[in-house]
Automatic annotation (TrEMBL):
Enzyme class, broadest EC rank: hydrolase
Family per similarity comment: Belongs to the glycosyl hydrolase 2 family.
Protein's UniProt keywords contain Hydrolase: yes
Enzyme Commission no: 3.2.1.25
Domain Glycoside hydrolase family 2 immunoglobulin-like beta-sandwich: 234-316
Catalysed reactions listed for this entry: Hydrolysis of terminal, non-reducing beta-D-mannose residues in beta-D-mannosides
Entry GO MF terms: beta-mannosidase activity
SUPFAM superfamilies: (Trans)glycosidases, beta-Galactosidase/glucuronidase domain, Galactose-binding domain-like
Protein name, as recorded: beta-mannosidase
InterPro entries cross-referenced by the UniProt entry: Beta-gal/glucu_dom_sf, Beta-mannosidase-like_N2, Beta-mannosidase_GH2, Galactose-bd-like_sf, GH, Ig-like_fold, Ig-like_GH2
Domain Beta-mannosidase-like galactose-binding: residue ranges: 30-193
Alphabetized Gene3D superfamilies for the sequence: Galactose-binding domain-like, Glycosidases, Immunoglobulins
BP-aspect Gene Ontology terms: carbohydrate metabolic process; glycoprotein catabolic process
Amino acid sequence: MTEQHAPRPLVAREVHEGWTLSVAQAAAPQAADLVGVPATVPGSVHTDLLAAGLIPDPYLDDNEGLLGWIGRCDWEYRTTLGWTAEEAAAHERHDLVFDGLDTVAEVRLNGQVLGSTANMHRTYRFDVSGALRVGDNDLVVRFASPVRHADRQSLALGYRPQVNKHPFNAIRKMACSFGWDWGLDTATSGIWRPVRLESWSVARLSVVRVEASVEDGALDGGPGQTLAPGRVRVQVEVERTASGTDALRLGVQVAGAQTVVEVTQGETSATVDVVVPAVALWWPQGYGDQPLHDVEATLACGTYRLDRAHRRVGFRTVRLEMEPDEHGTSFRFVVNGRPVFVRGANWIPDDAFPHRVTRERYAARIAQAQTANINLLRVWGGGIYEADDFYDLCDERGILTWQDFLFACAAYAEEEPLRGEVEAEVRDNVVRLAHHASLVLWNGSNENIWGYQDWGWEKRLDGRTWGLGYYTELLPQLLAELDPARDYTPSSPWSGSLDVYPNDPAHGSMHSWELWNRQDYPHYRDVVPRFLAEFGWQGPPTWSTLTRAISDDPLTPESPGMLVHQKAMQGNDKLVDGLVAHLPLPDDMEDWHWAMSLNQATAVRVAVEHLRSWSPVCMGSVVWQLNDCWPVTSWSAVDGDGHAKPLLYALKHAYADRLVTIQPRDDQPGMPLAVAVVNDSGEAWTGDLVIRRLRFDGVELQGVKVPVEVGARATATVPVPPDVAATDTPTGEVLVATLGAERATWFFAEPRDSALETPGLVVEPVRTATGARVRVTTDVLVQDLALLADKVAPDAVVDDMLVTLLPGESVTFEVTCPGEIDLAALADPRVLRHANQLVTEVTR
């Protein structure tokens, strides 16, 4: 090979400029205006029309219904791709690569059909070497209506039960595009992930699989181990041009070690193992550091580099233990030999138009998860395989990830063409994500095995396939090939066997929705699951988000915009039913908003503290849900504008490394209350546990001091003596347990029945360089004090919330705000809220 004919490295050129959007059918409203609309790629039809001022914001008021026609139309994206003779001659092969097309599309270049697509979750590559011409090239992507396609496919594949007004299970598109019980119906189309033209010669890396592992037997399971011998295995597939028959070299470099192998003439695959004698272990948040190492794989022909791939890996071991024991079947994650109690939350797409979620937005949301002491995010199966940025950030911050395959709350046909699409998307995404240290579990589906058994599917299916073959055969087979070291469950909930009821609390993972739907949150304490993978309580978005998104006048819980932004079946009725046993129902809208926000936070806190008090029998709590995709009343802790609801602060307290909680214990005759001391830190926790029964005015009636010593990652339970726990005045007394800086309270009566008083709060706000510092002192017991800073400035953030103060106590809130903030407004009783207001003012 001469220098003149030396192959050049692969080059990639983004194809993101000059796109226009046009409706492809005249029946659309304003059809004449919907031609040649400037388009953004990556993007979507809705966001392009919104940017052009042709539609109102679908997130506001009742605009969702006005825009339903968009999903029923066909659309066309078009751009001109310039091409020079020099570019053509520089390489042998030119591929047009789409990282994501949403969803049913035909791609044409200069009138030539390159191919058709029918899966939002795949990457598509088209060889355009023969279709490109010097000069301008006309590139067109025409999208068929996702609504009409799904309807047609539901007939072609045969009816399968699902939980939506659209047959989302008949199309490989983000299920919640068609709406959910927290999501709006957009059913958009578009080029939603990057597009590029890749030019290459001789050969390229078509598949790169990277696995980092710790040598077998290298971990002692002790808390002090930080180093271990590691190994990186890189398996590649190589695509060659017709002339690319020469022997190739594949080199892999990681952590200062390097290995090179030859890919002999005609071979199209290779494996490289690199041994690293001593690497720092990667740990989840709260267990250690998160060292990451760059892996560089380089494909060369002689001395000429052809292609390269980069990944970042962390070295750790992880396994899911599902083993029989005296309580049933466990469900616990073990990282580097150490069991991890999962303090988790479910993750949904952070925007109904997920192309708008930037790395900065992922980072903000994951930072909020860290604020709430969350150590695992479960990526739910009705959404997407998230962008690389999401998993990169979780790797960096020690947030474990559990990835559902994209099957949710529905039966799915196992026949073609759906089966082939499923296999292709799984291959794409497992290879893309498997190297991430944070990824600890693949899960086959959300609630589908449970749904088949409990939701009447079997009768309605009448013998049709429903997805079981995916969950028990296809997916495990693909994982055995592509990611054999990582654990897999066929569904969530999952008991460990098809012979055991899938949502049995004693076996494996469980989902709990009877409390929200039909019962009440104190009943969370009735069951001790081995791992609770879904549970939650609804609440409205923050006040600033609510009033930005809904312009109803008057704004009421049942005003038109409010009902559009409440997607749950009988959602408002369930909000009221879940409130009135605990707090009176307000008639004032701001009081209603605060009451529902507080009740959501309280309900979830009750559940989480119960679950943690039973560790290690229970080894996980995954709250539904961390985030929202638009402004809506939902189960989220962070609303659709990215603002933290009171629930996030409840999680911060309930998920703290060290927790003191008072719990009922029916298994202790004569001692119905106990203090659970939960130590999920790496150090032993010792001290005097002080348990006192106080009057609301602060006078101590009974007390006891108990020395305790709780080992690292352990829980101790201390019965409350009967004379301390007994009360003749349940409406005016509180039980307080304190260990060091941690405190728990137990109210013998619900707030609505308690003798809570109107406090005379002394509020002292002081301006700071980043916002304000607000010191609040009370003269009487104040329950769940909160500073709703967003009501003063939408971008104001407070550091804590839901603090219960005894008479004479103070708390200081730190408020950060990028702009000027009104200090006086921070003391307004509509901003500085507490449970006492809902009792003393609403009941007057």
